[in-house]
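Model it.
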Amino acid sequence: MGMNVGSSSGEDEVMVEINTTPLIDVMLVLLIMFIITIPIQTHAVKMNMPVPNNAAPPPIPPEIVRIDLDFDGTIGWNGEIIPDRNTLEARLQALAQMPDQPEVHLRPNKLVTYKYVAMVMASAQRLGVTKIGIVGNEQFLN
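Modeled.
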């Protein structure tokens, strides 16, 4: 392994070989820097698991009130048509006064305008109904 100093003829020749030693040195320094800066990954997953409850489940399922909203804004209460907003608010007020409020399932029609849905939800919130949810969302998939 000798060193090529030059040609014996004395003419200048162009070197076409690239010196890769500095490039390898820089690559190794960068590799070491990446290894140092990457945080150590632990393979443990920390989870807050629920504490087992030995209490008996509730003896009866909760009461469910179903409010249906038809496409024209007609409000139904468990299948019974509600004539006006005052009647709806009176029934919601009676629900809010109960110590154990029943669940209210709001089921809007696919074609009903949002103002009717917002009116029922705003009335329920204003009167203190806390267990309310929108059901029947599968009709909106298409």
